[in-house]
Fold:
Amino acid sequence: MFKSKRGIYQTRRPFPKPLAILLSIPVALIVLEILIRILTAITGFSDELAAYEAERKIVTAYRLKFLNQAQVPYDGLSNRGSLIAQGNELLGYKLAKNQQSDFWRINEQGFRADEPVALQKPPGEIRVFVLGGAAAFGYLSLNNQTTLAGQLEQRLNQQAGKQQPNSEETPSENEQGETPASSVRIRQGQYRVINAAVPGYTSGNEVVQLALEILAYKPDLIVVLNGYEDLMLPSTQQGADIPGTQTFLQNASTHFSAAVTQGWQNWISQSYLLKGVQYWILRPHEAPLKDYANQLSLVADNSVLPPAKQLADDADELQRRVSRYGHHLQQMARLTAAANVPLIVAVQPEITGRGQNNPIPDEREILEQLGKSYAQKVEPGFPQLGAVVKDVEREFPKNVTALNLYNFYADFRDPAFQDAVHLSDVANTQLANHLSETVNKALQTQTKPPN
Structure:
């Protein structure tokens, strides 16, 4: 009896060979993938997991996804993101029409607006167009209404409503003989502020957009909020384009390698097993927005380089980028002056403009992520941008109003920045209140509204 048992122990099954173990791993992963897909389908969670990109939902919603005319992602580019942009020969790219998410809506003209904008302006409507890049677009804003454009429209209509249409009251002057901005009488009418900004656009994209699209809508005033993207764009380029376009055209092997690598990455990232581990265990979607500082500051760039690496390395390159910016602003000023449309050009706020005594812990962490070299490179650029804007104002004094908002939030006590340049909704409120007064004054200089 005992011998029999010992014989059983002696005939124990041998341990599997290494090859068998290796082969069993992919089989087990496939089985787990199938099981997770079945479970998520039964529980109704399949669609949400399929759309999950292992990051905050609002970040995915605002990432640009570049599609060709066949609605297919470009080879070598990431398939992440929900904000669809398509290539355009003259503009580089444009936002696709009629798209929406939980945070934004793009109308049939490709503007960030809930309703379409007719070419024929309704009687009594006063149109203000906002141009620029991601900050003007309202990157990371909760909805269309909390953007700068949305809040500016609300503010202007509030001011128009408070003022009596037939009031003959004359604004009082201060001791210097100047009329306070808050006393300037606002033009009566229904104000509509149209957000025509596009994430990633530079002044080169905006001047083309102004000439080809915006002026056709007979704007009464145009606000341009920009500068940051121009500091980031190499002087060899005139405007932002689909990321990697020039590199891929000039180097076929690089394009092929990137396409293959990105294809594998896209395929792996769609695994429900990987998504499930990220969603239920690692939970990167709960990370605070400040952790995305290095990713979101360049929304239209496909490079792995952080913002500090894309700023000018020397004074000569910085000067070339600033000069390009000034040239494009001059073109905008000529176009709007010919159309008798007031132009407000504002150098956008940026986080280093908060100063050394920044009281907001999250913003201090953002600066730490961006690095010391980032601050050292970006700070000299904004005074030069401001000087260029002032030069354009002096050249076109009857048409252009220049603003340098780099230090606008220096004394602001609430969180203003969600990364290097993208503003919080409360910061947009503050900026909209400030711009409304500038808009009021600029409209007074318009001798005759455009037909």
The radius of gyration is 27 Å.
